From TrEMBL:
PROSITE patterns: CYTC. This is Cytochrome C. Keywords: Electron transport, Heme, Iron, Metal-binding, Signal, Transport. InterPro entries: Cyt_c-like_dom, Cyt_c-like_dom_sf, Cyt_c_1A/1B. Residues 22-122 form the Cytochrome c domain. It holds the Pfam family Cytochrom_C. It comes from the Bacteria. It comes from Bosea vaviloviae. The keyword Transport applies. Residues 1-21 form the signal peptide. GO terms for molecular function: electron transfer activity; heme binding; metal ion binding. PANTHER family: CYTOCHROME C.
Length: 128
């Protein structure tokens, strides 16, 4: 009985962890909120916003050929999961003066899923 109880407990913990795991497919659906201004992938170009290939590890204001706001250039941030999560919740709060017009994504799980989706793409736009 004790072994069965332990097995049930472990299964419950694993199911909960799985439910919290990042969901790339859900992140791709969330990406639809971004694609009006940004592109990603091998054919991505700058548009209203810069392309987002290789976003994580890149410095703010660094995409060649994109005209950034002075605030974004001066922010001196390196995009990582934590900075991106803060930014995407409320871009104007994280970088006052940014020209990004977006209400933000408040849901932590949606941010994690979107992050997982974006992290798939290297600097060249190819999936890693």
């Amino acid at each position: 009985m004790k072994l069965l109880t332990s097995a049930i407990l472990i299964a419950t913990i694993l199911a909960a962890a799985s439910a919290q795991a990042q969901d790339i497919a859900a992140g791709e659906r969330s990406w639809n909120k971004c694609r009006a201004c940004h592109q990603i992938g091998e054919t991505a170009k700058n548009g209203v916003g810069p392309h987002l290939n290789g976003l994580f590890g890149r410095h703010t204001g660094e995409v060649e050929g994109y005209s950034y706001s002075a605030a974004n250039k001066a922010a001196n941030l390196t995009w990582d999961e934590a900075i991106f999560a803060e930014y995407i919740k409320d871009p104007k709060a994280k970088i006052p003066g940014t020209k990004m017009v977006f209400a933000g994504i408040k849901n932590e799980k949606e941010i994690a899923d979107l992050t997982a989706f974006l992290k798939q793409f290297g600097k060249d736009g190819k999936k890693l």
